[in-house]
Design brief:
Oligomer: single chain
Radius of gyration: 19 Å
Largest sheet: 8 strands, parallel, barrel
Number of helices: 13
Helix content: 40-55%
Mean pLDDT: 90
Strand content: 5-15%
Low-confidence stretches: 1-16
Shape: globular
Length: about 350
């Protein structure tokens, strides 16, 4: 397929945000029916505190703060976290760092303020609504405890398949969190169309609007369940937040299985199994990036925004943060989107869906 030429607006927008510009206010949108005003892209903090997958070290904290300052000053105002982020004794580390960075930040505040959205884990000992409320209060304490320290509280995954009574208590917990004003809105994560509709109805009947549903969504993971979930979110007026929009780094162009250029540990083993079959997609991604004068990561992130999702992208340092910002200020053409998706369908490599993703 011959790629449609980049639009004039796209050419003029190259590097605009990453070079010190800011996101126009017109590009912010509310998350679902909540009052949380969100930038078109957010930052994910899964790596902040995670030694197993991301080789985190406490010496990285100042580097992370510099990345935080850069993206906030550029207008990015959504930071996704979870009370389970951080391995071992570092559990909750990502929330703690966000609270610290927010308190120390002295630069320009984006429209809508800085919005932290955190996920509360469906641990087997969290059975009642009260336990969910306590978990939310603990997250708020790590985030600094300010009145607006938490924009959204999200249920990290569903227990409906294996513990339906626990699921009922956790959903009721979201209602109480909202009613007590512990978060400005509530959301879900890893919910497929059927369970999403069920919980949305339960919340609506309790007078609580569902703001978001967070799922794995990228050019390596948009066919089947993720695509169906996006359509369901649109029908319900729920914002779909895309996590792993770069496929754990596989869509950045930085890694190669054939050249044994892989990260250590679990991520490297996963890439070794997926990357060879993803060759058609990666070749098309490189071609679009070259024609656009963008990096492959920027094209992959921009694709998720073109699909109407809000991508949350990891940033471990200023260099990564600046590259991510380069995905803003322009838009892929319909022809480029179609070419990328056709190449993805031709590829045999794809991300396995999260084991907790429901139907």
């Amino acid at each position: 397929r011959k790629l449609q030429a980049p639009s004039l607006e796209g050419l003029l927008g190259r590097g605009k945000i990453g070079s010190g510009g800011t996101i126009p206010r017109s590009q912010y949108r509310k998350l679902g029916a909540s009052d949380v005003l969100a930038s078109p892209m957010g930052v994910g903090t899964w790596a902040w505190g995670n030694k197993l997958l991301w080789q985190y070290d406490t010496d990285d904290d100042e580097t992370l703060r510099e990345a935080y300052d850069l993206v906030v000053s550029a207008g990015v105002n959504v930071f996704d976290s979870a009370d389970s982020y951080g391995t071992g004794k570092l559990e909750g580390r990502a929330e703690t760092l966000l609270g610290d960075f927010g308190e120390r930040y002295t630069g320009r505040v984006p429209p809508g303020g800085v919005n932290v959205i955190t996920k509360l884990a469906a641990y087997p000992w969290r059975v009642t609504a009260g336990q969910m409320v306590s978990a939310c209060e603990a997250s708020r304490a790590r985030l600094g405890g300010g009145e607006d320290c938490l924009a959204l509280a999200q249920l990290h995954w569903s227990a409906a398949k294996y513990a339906p009574l626990q699921e009922r208590g956790m959903v009721r917990g979201l209602v109480e969190i909202y009613e007590r004003g512990l978060a400005r809105g509530v959301g879900l994560s890893n919910y497929g169309p059927r369970e999403l509709a069920r919980v949305e109805r339960q919340l609506r009947e309790a007078g609580v609007p569902l703001a978001s549903n967070q799922v794995q969504y990228s050019l390596l993971s948009f066919q089947g369940a993720p695509g169906d979930t996006k359509a369901a979110c649109d029908d319900l007026g729920v914002t779909m937040i895309a996590y792993s929009p770069l496929g754990l780094g596989m869509l950045t162009g930085k890694y190669s299985a054939s050249e044994r250029r892989l990260p250590p540990g679990v991520r490297g083993r996963l890439m070794a199994s997926v990357l060879p079959g993803a060759a058609p997609l990666l070749e098309c991604l490189e071609m679009v990036a070259d024609e656009r004068g963008k990096t492959q990561a920027q094209v992959a992130i921009n694709w998720t925004m073109c699909k109407g999702a809000l991508p949350i992208v990891g940033a471990k340092d200023v260099s990564q943060a600046r590259e991510n910002l380069g995905a803003l200020g322009w838009r892929l053409t319909d022809g480029e989107v179609d070419a990328l998706e056709d190449a993805a369908r031709m590829s045999k490599g794809a991300m396995t869906q999260n084991v907790f993703m429901t139907r």
